[in-house]
């Protein structure tokens, strides 16, 4: 990796070229990476690892493992991590911005359109809700096969689903994640851990520790400030920061957390919430940019900016804070066991979200169910791209609205 010496103008120019390269490549991925978090990791591997050789395959796999364990959008954190390893903290921020900005712009425009024309009850919007059913069902299907291949992990997933639906508080989901991690340690701590390769991380450990302290400080401090001031902007920052800080498993799993934050508060209706989630499937990049849409619906353009920064900030603080210490802890059998349990719990949380609020709000008739199954088949068995599923859902929803 390039080492930058501020007193050497040639090396400074080399560092600027590296940052520019990170920005260009991440923006390309932000414009073309359809398909959700798992697909994003494949795009990253092809572009960053196979094509550009920014790190080896084993180091990339270890980075993915770390981001799966940390709360937040796992694919975005992997992109941030690659940017940090390539060009320091600034490189991580640029990698995030390039990957995120295209979908932010698209969802902001969609939110403004939805507000300006009052189209929340349109048939094509209902079609987007049905698209959300098929997309999340695909996520459950794919993650279930990978993350719950045996009876123990399937039991963790089912138990998590049951308790998530019966105890629908945001705090209960966090407790279930912790409990699943403890079960994973007990059941899988003796699983053999392969030798870990060394990662070179250009982040000072003092800076890393400061980021972790800031992460915890904001997580504890924002709710207190919100109660003391009753400021609507602070309320948005608090809700979206907590959602980004307490979700494991990526974009689909943040759905129940966000729904509990914004719908009961009266910030947005459930139908507009699900319409936006369906629209988020049509754009490339991270699903966490769903927060952009929600922020825009709540407080316009500046609400979108605040919600987007607030939901991604925990992920950035955590990856900067964790990377310098990862070499020491990533070979631990206990850590791998905990990750195994958490991954199984994520499947259960996603399954609960599939039922409520997605299924209960979108599948209202036999025709809705038929369309959802067809879209699911197009995704899973016909392997059609998500943007085409969105178009099919819009057309199907419009037809259902017309014949009913």
TrEMBL record:
GO terms for cellular component: plasma membrane. Keywords: Cell membrane, Membrane, Transmembrane, Transmembrane helix. GO terms for molecular function: chromate transmembrane transporter activity. The keyword Membrane applies. The keyword Membrane applies. The chain crosses the membrane at residues 94-117, 123-144, 156-187, 207-228, 240-258, 273-294, 301-326, 338-355. It is a multi-pass membrane protein. InterPro entries: Chr_Tranpt_l_chain (IPR014047), Chromate_transpt (IPR003370). It comes from the Bacteria. It is found in: Cell membrane. PANTHER family: CHROMATE ION TRANSPORTER (EUROFUNG) (PTHR33567:SF3). Belongs to the chromate ion transporter (CHR) (TC 2.A.51) family. This is Chromate transporter. It comes from Paenibacillus rhizovicinus.
């Amino acid at each position: 990796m390039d080492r930058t010496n501020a007193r050497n103008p040639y090396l400074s120019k080399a560092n600027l070229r590296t940052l520019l390269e990170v920005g260009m490549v991440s923006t390309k991925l932000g414009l073309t990476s359809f398909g959700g978090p798992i697909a994003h990791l494949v795009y990253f591997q092809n572009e960053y690892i196979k094509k550009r050789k920014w790190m080896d395959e084993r180091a990339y796999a270890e980075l993915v493992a770390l981001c799966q364990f940390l709360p937040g959008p796992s694919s975005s954190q992997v992109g941030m991590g690659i940017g940090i390893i390539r060009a320091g903290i600034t490189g991580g921020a640029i990698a995030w911005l390039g990957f995120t900005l295209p979908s932010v712009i698209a969802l902001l425009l969609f939110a403004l359109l939805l507000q300006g024309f009052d189209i929340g009850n349109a048939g094509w919007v209902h079609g987007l809700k049905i698209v959300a059913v098929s997309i999340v069902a695909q996520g459950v299907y794919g993650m279930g096969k990978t993350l719950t291949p045996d009876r123990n992990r399937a039991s963790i997933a089912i138990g998590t689903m049951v308790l998530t639906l019966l105890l629908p508080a945001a705090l209960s989901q966090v407790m279930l994640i912790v409990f699943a991690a403890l079960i994973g340690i007990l059941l899988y701590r003796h699983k053999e851990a392969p030798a870990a390769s060394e990662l070179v991380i250009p982040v000072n450990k003092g800076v890393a520790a400061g980021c972790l302290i800031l992460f915890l400080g904001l997580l504890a401090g924002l709710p207190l400030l919100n109660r003391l001031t009753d400021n609507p902007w602070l309320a948005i920052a608090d809700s979206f920061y907590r959602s980004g800080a307490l979700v494991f498993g990526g974009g689909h799993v943040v759905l129940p957390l966000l729904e509990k934050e914004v719908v009961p508060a009266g910030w947005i209706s459930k139908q507009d919430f699900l319409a936006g989630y369906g629209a988020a499937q049509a754009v490339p990049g991270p699903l966490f940019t769903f927060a952009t849409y929600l922020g825009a619906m709540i407080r316009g353009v500046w609400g979108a900016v605040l919600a987007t920064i607030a939901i991604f900030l925990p992920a950035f603080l955590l990856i900067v804070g964790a990377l310098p210490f990862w070499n020491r802890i990533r070979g631990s059998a206990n850590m791998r066991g905990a990750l195994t349990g958490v991954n199984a719990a994520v499947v259960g949380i996603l399954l609960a979200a599939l039922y409520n609020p997605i299924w209960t709000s979108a599948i209202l008739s036999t025709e809705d169910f038929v369309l959802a199954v067809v879209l699911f088949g197009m995704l899973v068995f016909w392997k059609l791209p998500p943007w085409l599923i969105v178009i099919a859902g819009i057309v199907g929803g419009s037809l259902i609205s017309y014949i009913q």
